[in-house]
């Protein structure tokens, strides 16, 4: 596959050289999967708290479970803070994403709305891990609170986050990592996250153009930028499915290109998490690779200022 050359977006970070699209997607016809072209782990043992065993596991499987990332004394405060943020925001605030029935599904930019969530970003169990995995300074590309209330919470279809961030936000390379911190118990039956281990080593191009303002609908039910059923079946046949379960305070770290999804929550047991996306400052966003214009700042921060 020949890489595509694109002109960068104008502004203070624009470069004179064209930007290479190594992961074409949202195409008018299917093409073969593309092998990953970047490392999975950019730092070493000396660069952070993770052992070589943990780094090797993350490199192989694309994810890592970190118990007690947030201690028990933080959890009641964070749950209360989420309720406060939800009440304080205006009903029509675009950062609030609702289920079709009206309940809140996600709240974006919680680290800018809450000093307490901002402190979570900088915990010794969080920020140093992101820096180690990505090999240097990082910034928050996106942050949100995900709420999956009992009976009404709907799932997230199988997808690679990087596919969206590349196509719609202009993220050039796979050098980002997500940290999902559980605020409630994650059971196998209340919509907990499923991942396809090892799928992060392959980029799966998707077919179909990006609609105008696709984020208006994709944040509720994603249908664009997802692999077809044949592709997903082959990926699962090759790699299997793992499910994230565990007590509140546990974090799931996973690579930006790892295929993941979740089912709906038809139990009475709610599931919520703080979801933080760290991107390397060396991987700053350019012009979208497969969308007419960038998504709003609350979905994709374009400043690339390192978290101190």
UniProtKB/TrEMBL annotation:
Keyword Amino-acid biosynthesis set for record: no
Cofactor(s) named in the record: Fe(2+)
Keywords assigned by UniProt, alphabetized: Dioxygenase, Iron, Metal-binding, Oxidoreductase
UniProt cross-references to SUPFAM superfamilies, sorted A to Z: Clavaminate synthase-like
Enzyme class: oxidoreductase
Known role: Involved in the biosynthesis of 5-hydroxyectoine, called compatible solute, which helps organisms to survive extreme osmotic stress by acting as a highly soluble organic osmolyte. Catalyzes the 2-oxoglutarate-dependent selective hydroxylation of L-ectoine to yield (4S,5S)-5-hydroxyectoine.
UniProt catalytic activity: L-ectoine + 2-oxoglutarate + O2 = 5-hydroxyectoine + succinate + CO2
Family to which the UniProt record says this protein belongs: Belongs to the PhyH family. EctD subfamily.
InterPro entries: EctD (IPR012774), Phytyl_CoA_dOase-like (IPR008775)
Superkingdom to which the source organism belongs: Bacteria
Key word Transcription present: no
Protein's name according to its UniProt entry: Ectoine hydroxylase
Quaternary structure, from the entry: Homodimer.
EC number: 1.14.11.55
Gene3D superfamilies per the UniProt record, alphabetical: q2cbj1_9rhob like domain (2.60.120.620)
């Amino acid at each position: 596959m020949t890489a595509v050359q694109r002109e960068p977006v104008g502004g203070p970070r624009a470069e004179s050289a064209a930007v290479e699209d190594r992961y074409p997607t949202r195409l008018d016809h299917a093409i073969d999967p593309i092998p990953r072209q970047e490392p999975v782990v950019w730092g070493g043992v000396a660069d952070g708290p993770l052992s070589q065993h943990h780094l090797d596991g993350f490199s192989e499987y694309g994810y890592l479970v970190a118990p007690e990332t947030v201690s028990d004394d933080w959890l009641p405060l964070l749950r209360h803070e989420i309720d406060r943020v939800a009440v304080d925001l205006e009903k029509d605030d675009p950062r609030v994403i609702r289920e079709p029935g009206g309940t809140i599904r996600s709240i974006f930019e919680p680290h800018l709305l809450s000093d307490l969530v901002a402190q979570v970003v900088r915990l010794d169990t969080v920020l140093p891990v992101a820096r180690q995995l990505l090999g240097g300074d990082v910034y928050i590309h996106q942050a949100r609170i995900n709420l999956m209330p009992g009976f009404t919470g709907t799932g997230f279809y199988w997808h690679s986050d990087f596919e969206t961030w590349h196509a719609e936000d202009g993220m050039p390379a796979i050098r980002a990592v997500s940290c999902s911190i559980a605020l409630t118990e994650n059971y196998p039956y209340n919509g907990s996250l499923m991942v396809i281990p090892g799928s992060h080593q392959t980029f799966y191009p998707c077919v179909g153009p990006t609609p105008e303002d696709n984020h208006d609908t994709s944040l509720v039910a994603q249908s664009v930028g997802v692999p077809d059923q044949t592709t997903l079946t082959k990926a699962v046949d090759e790699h299997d499915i793992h499910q994230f379960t565990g007590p509140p305070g546990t974090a799931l770290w996973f690579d930006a290109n790892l295929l993941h999804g979740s089912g709906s929550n038809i139990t009475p047991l709610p599931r919520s998490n703080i979801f933080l996306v760290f991107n390397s400052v060396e991987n700053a966003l350019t012009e979208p690779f497969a969308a007419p214009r960038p998504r709003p700042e609350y979905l994709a921060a374009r400043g690339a200022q390192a978290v101190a």
